[in-house]
Every structure is written in C-alpha cells, then in structure tokens.
Amino acid sequence: MKPPAPYENAVTFQFGDSPELADELLALVLAGTKTATCGALRDFNAQEPVPEAGRRDVVLDGRGHPACVIETLSVLIQRFDQVDEAFAVAEGEGPYEAWRDGHIAYFERNGGYAPDMMLVCERFRVVEVFER
C-alpha cells in the first residue's frame, strides 16, 4: 500500500521482524514512548538507506499499511556495546537490561550478534499520523 501525498516516494519500513513486533513497537511510537531506534549497519541498503537528519520516513504497521511519518533528528553510528542507557531508554522498550537482551535476541535472529557490531542509532519525532 502506497503512502499518501506528499510521502508517496518516502522510505517506508516496519519496526521489528514480525507483524506482531511491528505493531507493538508502532504503538510505542504513537504513544510517544519510543523516540529512538537502531538497526545493524549491515542491514541498510538502497531500499532502506541509512537515515539522515531531516529525512522523513513512513512507518508501516504489521499489515504493511502506512501508519505515521517520522522525521530523523539525529543519527549516530556506533558499536552495540557503546550504546548508552539514555539511548536504550529512548527506544521505549524498558530499562537498559531489557533493551540489551531484546536486541541481542533480535540480531541473533537476523544475521548474528556481536558486541562490536556497528549499529545505526536514530532519534526521531512523529510528524504525522495517518488514519487506518
């Protein structure tokens, strides 16, 4: 499903690696709890390029429907073991230990985990929510 104008050519993505996780994380974004996200640098490509400050992307729900637009505020590329508690808490998924355990499991499911793996750490804000 294509995002509405003026976002029809925006980068689109889902959080997580399942429809259930996509909806769970999207709910945290829409509630204002989740204002940051990270991904393995190795997983970015032409279809989902590394975010840049000022870029606006469309977040899809678990069914692939456009749910909201986020604007990237900042991007930091750093090692997994360099992510600080403030960033982990901004991801909205609980205290640092919960963030760490959840992300290790996620990366193990999606290509492997290592403490020195490079992450793209993004802070963002919601700029528009779509009717669904």
From TrEMBL:
Residues 13-128 form the ASCH domain. It comes from the Bacteria. Gene3D superfamilies: Sulfate adenylyltransferase. InterPro entries: ASCH_domain (IPR007374), DUF984 (IPR009326), PUA-like_sf (IPR015947). CDD domains: ASCH_Ef3133_like (cd06553). Transmembrane segments: none annotated. SMART domains: ASCH (SM01022). SUPFAM superfamilies: PUA domain-like (SSF88697). PANTHER family: CYTOPLASMIC PROTEIN, CYTOPLASMIC PROTEIN-RELATED. This is ASCH domain-containing protein. It comes from Achromobacter insolitus. The lineage of its organism: Bacteria, Pseudomonadati, Pseudomonadota, Betaproteobacteria, Burkholderiales.
